[in-house]
């Protein structure tokens, strides 16, 4: 079959992961992104981390919450390769794992607001906006629902 006219299917007819899923995972794992970026800075690694996370506890909590996004990303990579097969039964529940991670991220945002004594900052405002839009995306996206239900039992046995 030729799927060249349908851009959201790959050459085998499987649903490709949406770009928004990758952006959502980067948003949830932004603590890990800051950590990796700080490792590339040779002079003062802590300065970059303190720029984004003035409180050390906020950074550590972001790393802990972002670890779930790293696990979901590993499941997405496993789905693209269609192996290992033990990930397949867990894959349809990854959408609910993302919902849980967004709830945890909302709790961390509340903690950051409390640490700033309710002073408005652009980073908190942007985080709240992206959190809101990410929640709407998880709720509304039909393509994401199709993607998480695409890995069937007989796919890995070809």
TrEMBL record:
Keywords: Membrane, Transmembrane, Transmembrane helix
Regions crossing the membrane: 21-39, 59-78, 90-111, 117-139
InterPro entries: DUF2919
Protein name per Swiss-Prot or TrEMBL: DUF2919 domain-containing protein
Species name: Shewanella pealeana (strain ATCC 700345 / ANG-SQ1)
